Amino acid sequence: MLICRDALRVSECLGSSILRREKTDHRAGVMNGTLIAGTPIAVDFWNIRKAGQARLFFLSHMHSDHTVGLSSTWNQPVYCSPVTGQILHLRLKVAKQWIRPLEVGDSHVVALDEIGRKTMTVTLIDANHCPGSVMFLFEGYFGAILYTGDFRYNANMQQNPVLKNSKLINLLYLDNTNCHPEIILPSQEQATEQIKKLIRDHPDHQVKIGTYNLGKESLLVELAQEFHTWIVVSPQKLELMQLLEIEDVFTSEEGAGWIHAVDFSEICKETITIWNQNHPTIAILPTSRPRKSLENFDLQVENYLKRGRVSIGTE
């Protein structure tokens, strides 16, 4: 994550292609949270013992690298989008009494102290990353702070009423995972068409799509509609799809469909080999992150999806 402390306009921030790239740690169990200095604000930070003066805890989205330390024992208010709040209760069993859902697109006044003498305004902005994901715009005595969290930029963001105005941002926390001039990503629509072509080119194959616990839902729905098949998922993922009220194209019944959404970690040389022993199978990883488990394996690398590379592995 890039931190910029110079005053600049939002459109200059999100539209830039020359920001310096820094390493983001995506290892399991590694927290991608922030304590905003000089404020009581913590974003995606769930270690109370290290939280210092923080008393306002915000959750940008429900990917596991942003919830490290958050569990059913949490006993502080958590501010998040309504969708994230639902998933937080379902997945991590955080009590509903601690979940403070804030509508996306609206500005909300939040007390900075226990008696409400000092307040700030926080506005949630759709981050275009996964269901419920948001950016936070904080405004108060500290100026204006924009925390993007993980987000997928598109030009339409600059037309958002909150981001379109001439307001100056004093402090910017920017997800710049793929912000590098040498990384050129197609649109989500273009990448989805690439995946459809890969599947059409392998008409007698089963298809495994590697996903995280949240995300790629729109891709899976499009594939179900395009190829007229159920998307087979785990019972846990099916429960999540039903909670999100996503189109009814998912099932946990093995054999009901030939496209399977599997955990990202399952896409490796060993499992691809086993799948192909039973039935010709292709595996697609919609990600930009290189997979060590697929190194030196017979692999076609096609292009990028969203923030990522579409990889297809066959035996």
TrEMBL record:
Residues annotated as domain Metallo-beta-lactamase: 30-202
SUPFAM superfamilies: Metallo-hydrolase/oxidoreductase (SSF56281)
GO terms assigned for molecular function: 5'-3' DNA exonuclease activity; beta-lactamase activity; damaged DNA binding
SMART domains to which the protein is assigned, alphabetical: Lactamase_B (SM00849)
GO biological process, one term: interstrand cross-link repair
Family matches, as InterPro entries: Metallo-B-lactamas, RibonucZ/Hydroxyglut_hydro
Keywords: Chromosome, DNA damage, DNA repair, Exonuclease, Hydrolase, Nuclease, Nucleus, Telomere
Cleavable signal peptide: none
Protein's cellular compartments: Chromosome, Telomere; Nucleus
Reactions catalysed: a beta-lactam + H2O = a substituted beta-amino acid
EC number of the protein: 3.5.2.6
GO CC terms, sorted: chromosome, telomeric region; nucleus
Family: Belongs to the DNA repair metallo-beta-lactamase (DRMBL) family.
UniProt protein name: 5' exonuclease Apollo
Organism expressing this protein natively: Crotalus adamanteus
